[in-house]
Q: What sequence folds into this?
């Protein structure tokens, strides 16, 4: 398609473009807030107060949207325990004691002769496999090219 020298210069240009885009992406992902704060302090402007002095607590900002009757009916429903049941049990000191149950072992019955059901299942499976093999190997002969008649 291209001459070898043209292909080499195209590959070099693509590699340089990939390298330049990687460097531009790493510079674009810098912390812009830190750059803005440094520029503001360099200009002699006052920086923002720390977030803790202007942030309201979550409990003060929470708006309870339940009806008064529902809020009165559920006194402790304001918080939800998100721990797993096993963690809650361990924290409450619950440790179950397991008692060993006797294991009942079924004794196999004595063989009573030939199992006709198993024989029929095996015969049906063998017949199905035989039909599939005949269709696979014999089916190609029916759709093959036929000799042209004179």
A:
């Amino acid at each position: 398609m291209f001459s070898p020298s043209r292909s080499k210069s195209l590959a070099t240009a693509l590699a340089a473009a990939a390298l330049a885009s990687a460097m531009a992406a790493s510079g674009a992902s810098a912390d812009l807030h830190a750059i803005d704060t440094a520029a503001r302090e360099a200009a002699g402007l006052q920086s923002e107060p720390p977030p803790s002095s202007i942030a309201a607590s979550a409990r003060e900002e929470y708006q309870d949207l339940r009806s008064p009757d529902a809020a009165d009916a559920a006194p402790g429903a304001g918080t939800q325990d998100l721990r797993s049941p096993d963690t809650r049990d361990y924290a409450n000191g619950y440790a179950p004691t397991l008692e060993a149950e006797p294991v009942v072992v079924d004794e196999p019955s004595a063989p009573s002769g030939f199992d006709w059901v198993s024989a029929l299942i095996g015969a049906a499976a063998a017949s199905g496999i035989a039909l599939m093999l005949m269709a696979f190997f014999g089916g190609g002969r029916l759709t093959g090219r036929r000799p042209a008649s004179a």
Notes: Residues 71 and 77 are 8 Å apart (CA to CA). The longest helix spans residues 116-142. The helical segments are 4-28, 32-42, 51-54, 58-61, 68-73, 85-91, 116-142.
